[in-house]
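Take a record.
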Amino acid sequence: MSDEEKTVGIRKLTAILSADVFGYSRLMSTDEASTFKRLTDCREIIFRLIREHHGRVANTAGDAVLAEFASVRDAAAGAIEIQKALAELNSGVSADQKMHFRIGINLGDVYEQQGDLFGDGVNLAARIQSLADPGGILLSASVYEQLEHKSDVPVEFAGEQKVKNMEKPVKVYRVVMKNAPASVIAAPALPQEITESAPPSIVVGVLPFENLSEDPEQAYFCDGLVEDLTTALAAIPEMKTIARNTMFGFKGKSPDVRQLARDIGATHVVEGSVRKSGSRIRINAQLLETKEGSHLWARRYDKEIADLFDIQDDIVRSIATEMDVHLIRGEQARFWRATTRNAEAYDLLMQALSSAAIFAPQSFHRALASLERALDLDPDFLQALCFKSLYLRQQARNGMCSDPDEGMRQSRLACEKALRLDSRYPSAHANLAALLQIDGKLEESKKEWELSMSLNPNISGILSGWGWYCLLTRDYQKALSAVRRANELAPFPQTLNIALEALALQFLGRPEESLVIVSRALRRQQGDLFLWVTYAGLTGPLGLVEESKKAVLKILEIQPNFSAERFATSNAMFDHETAESYARVLHQLGLP
């Protein structure tokens, strides 16, 4: 490098690796000498592996490391080896003393002066690194594009993220740490920078359906079908639907769905075709994921052309339900759909489920209002009755209504009506099981849970309810198995399922794994009372003082009249001894 370049600096394109220690300030405040010694040991490993993968250490400050590589493949391979080596180093360290690094990699323009790196390329690497899980690695879109189809590094889309000092959200990709040591997987991922509206993990685009006949009226039908389907999918809050105008830009084209992931951020695409033959119309539709371009499901609809508008409505509802089955609520969505023929009532049920996905007073109020409207339209809507019973029970038992006794009475009435309408309806028996569990009639409750599961073994909510019963009876491994099966059946797990899995892991002596699960969920649902209480019950015993203080503030913000005893005892999730112990932990953190 010339003397002028040393003074003025040079610009270049390079792969930048940014790393830092998660929770470094807390570690230093706990034991400065020991923390500095561990940091030195970690840095020796990091520096060696950077060199071995043809990289160069640039800036270092405090716990941060910045390095550059000529190749993004070398940067990614080096990052993976670094995390694996550090996980092994952590294996013999107590949970509250483990030192976990977060790594972000970006390919961008940098400004180098006297060996140090500056510029937007460095800034983005640092911002991406701050979003990574402890022990994890995140990549920018520019790195992913270089690695895709050219490397065996396993990567998954982690959504569009809003980062500090960046006007637009950036696409980030997570390196999947296959065969990583358990200490990496179990690294605590605390929600330091929870955003108000985390991006949805499911982004769907509906491509214009292909008209396979020359009938111009059918072309209008195709466009109307796509427009109505886009509107129906946009009503599902758990996923983002790409605007119709954007997708109609692909009309008459056959885009590679994998390219759509890069161009418009779609994780899934619906495509199809329409063919008219005599008095019948045939519609083919399929759902594809964009990462690999693979098919998730395909369906053919053959209908008599009696009323095109009725056909269109029927098919739109059918496809929207299939999307709910395969992407959000699992097989149970189809099961619920069968309990009413009133489309508006079913839409209101979906609204109720979305509202109550966050465990909070206002959520239950909105959900119950939607269910009452659904039952006005269809008084015998079985699934609406079952969810009414569930939400009234949860509202009453958690001090979220003015008259808990009346709430419980109404919950029992809704359950009884559902059983009268269909004595073999699985969700009605699950509600009865939960009510018996609350009354302390555990043997009767167990029989009802077993009956409901025998009637339909593929309902996520029933399996998670059984998991709560197993937690109450201290069969923690069975509780964990039940909730994980429940989550397999519902691709978008409810927060109560996440809390159950976390509690089962905590009582099995695996608090760090539990903390990862809760922390990730809080990034998306920071208004959820149950998650924050579970988080507080984890961070307190682990000695994470600042994190537990934050949890206490959030709990009292969501529910000012929160009671530790009521939470621990009223939900029938702990036996008496465990409930007292759990309430004591929450009291020690400062909760009333």
User: Anything to note?
Assistant: Residues 1-8, 179-199 have pLDDT under 50 and may be disordered. The domain at 3-185 is CATH 3.30.70.1230 (Alpha-Beta Plaits). The chain has three domains: 3-185, 203-328, 367-588. The longest strand covers residues 101-113.
